[in-house]
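for the recovery benchmark. C-alpha cells below, seq after
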C-alpha cells in the first residue's frame, strides 16, 4: 500500500545516508513548471511536473538533499500540494517521514506534520475541503525489549491552525475524504495487512462500517480515492471474490491487479480493467478519467468506456504517485 511504499523508500534512503543526521532543509527555489503542469508525479526524482502529453517539465520545487517525496494530495484551492517526505535521520527524532506542503509555483515549502520519534512515518495526507485541517496516516514501529514486533497504524486529524492532533481511526491507512468533508473511506488493516475498505463520518470518525455493500471481497486493496463530484470511489484491488465468482481472480505479488470504481454509498462496483501491478489512481478534475503510473507507463483510463491510453513510457514511470492538476 502507499504507506508501505513510503516505508520501503525510507529504509533504502537510510542505508544510503548511513544514519547521517539530517541537514537543515534547503531553501525552496521557485520554478515556473508547477504553473504549467497538467500532472505532478512524486517519485525518487522529486516532485516532477508533466505537461498534457505527459512530457517531463522539471521539478516544481527544490527539495532537501537525499529526500524522497510520496503520496501527494492537491489542496482544495488547487494551488498547493501536501506530500510525505522522507529525510535522512535527524539528531532529535531519528529516522521517519514527515508531511510537507509546497505551492505549485515552487514557493512556500514547509512542514505541516513532523515525526516526533524514531521510526514514526507519516503518509497519505488528505486536506479537509475547507482547508483548515489535514488527515494523515501515521505508522509507528512497536519495539519491545529492543526488538521490532510490529506497527501501529492510525489516521490522525491535524488542525492546521493549532497543530492539535486527534486519532479518528485505528488499524487504518490510505484515507480519502469526500468533497463535502462528511465521509472518509480508508483501508482497514488486520495484523498489519489490508482487510477491506471501511467508511467513517467526519470530523470525529464515528459510525465506522464496511464501505462496500456488495458481496465482493478482495485479497488486497489499496489507495481509495473519492471522485471530484463525490459520486464514486476508485481503488486498486486484487483477488476479487464474489458469490458469482467463487475463488476469485489470481492476484497480488506478481499477479494482476485491477482498478475498481464503486458508488459512493458502496452499493455498486465495476472494474476499469487490469493494471499489471498495484496502482495509485488520480482522478481528472472533471472526474471522467483516471491516471496511474506503473509497469513503465503513464496510463489514462476513461471511466465511461474503460478506454485505456498510454500517455508516456519510460523508466521514470515504473513507480510514482500522481496528482492530476488540470485538464
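predicted aa per position
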Amino acid at each position: 500500500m502507499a504507506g508501505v511504499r513510503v516505508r520501503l523508500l525510507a529504509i533504502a534512503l537510510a542505508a544510503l545516508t548511513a544514519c547521517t543526521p539530517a541537514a537543515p532543509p534547503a531553501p525552496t527555489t521557485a520554478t515556473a513548471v508547477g504553473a504549467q503542469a497538467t500532472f505532478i508525479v512524486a517519485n525518487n526524482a522529486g516532485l516532477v511536473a508533466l505537461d498534457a502529453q505527459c512530457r517531463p517539465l522539471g521539478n516544481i520545487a527544490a527539495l532537501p538533499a537525499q529526500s524522497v517525496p510520496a503520496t501527494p494530495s492537491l489542496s482544495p484551492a488547487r494551488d498547493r500540494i501536501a506530500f510525505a517526505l522522507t529525510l535522512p535521520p535527524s539528531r532529535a527524532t531519528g529516522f521517519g517521514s514527515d508531511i510537507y506542503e509546497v505551492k505549485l509555483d515552487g514557493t512556500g515549502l514547509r512542514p505541516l506534520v513532523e515525526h516526533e520519534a524514531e521510526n514514526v512515518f507519516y503518509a497519505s495526507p488528505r486536506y479537509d475541503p475547507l482547508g483548515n485541517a489535514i488527515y494523515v496516516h501515521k505508522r509507528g514501529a512497536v519495539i519491545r525489549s529492543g526488538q521490532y514486533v510490529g506497527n501501529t497504524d492510525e489516521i490522525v486529524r491535524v488542525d492546521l491552525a493549532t497543530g492539535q492532533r486527534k486519532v479518528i481511526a485505528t488499524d487504518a491507512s490510505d484515507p480519502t475524504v469526500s468533497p463535502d468533508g462528511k465521509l472518509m473511506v480508508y483501508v482497514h488493516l488486520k495484523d498489519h495487512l489490508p482487510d477491506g475498505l471501511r467508511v467513517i463520518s467526519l470530523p470525529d470518525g464515528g459510525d465506522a462500517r464496511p464501505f462496500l455493500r456488495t458481496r465482493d471481497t478482495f485479497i488486497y486493496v489499496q489507495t481509495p480515492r473519492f471522485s471530484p463530484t463525490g459520486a464514486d470511489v476508485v481503488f486498486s484491488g486484487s483477488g476479487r471474490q464474489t458469490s458469482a465468482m467463487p475463488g476469485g481472480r489470481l492476484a497480488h505479488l506478481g499477479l494482476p491487479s485491477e482498478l475498481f470504481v464503486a458508488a459512493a454509498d458502496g452499493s455498486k462496483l465495476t472494474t476499469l480493467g487490469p493494471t499489471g501491478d498495484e496502482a495509485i489512481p488520480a482522478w481528472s478534475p472533471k472526474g471522467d478519467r483516471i491516471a496511474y503510473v506503473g509497469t513503465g507507463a503513464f496510463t489514462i483510463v476513461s471511466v465511461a468506456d474503460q478506454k485505456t491510453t498510454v500517455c508516456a513510457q519510460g523508466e521514470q514511470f515504473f513507480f510514482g504517485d500522481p496528482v492530476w492538476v488540470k485538464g
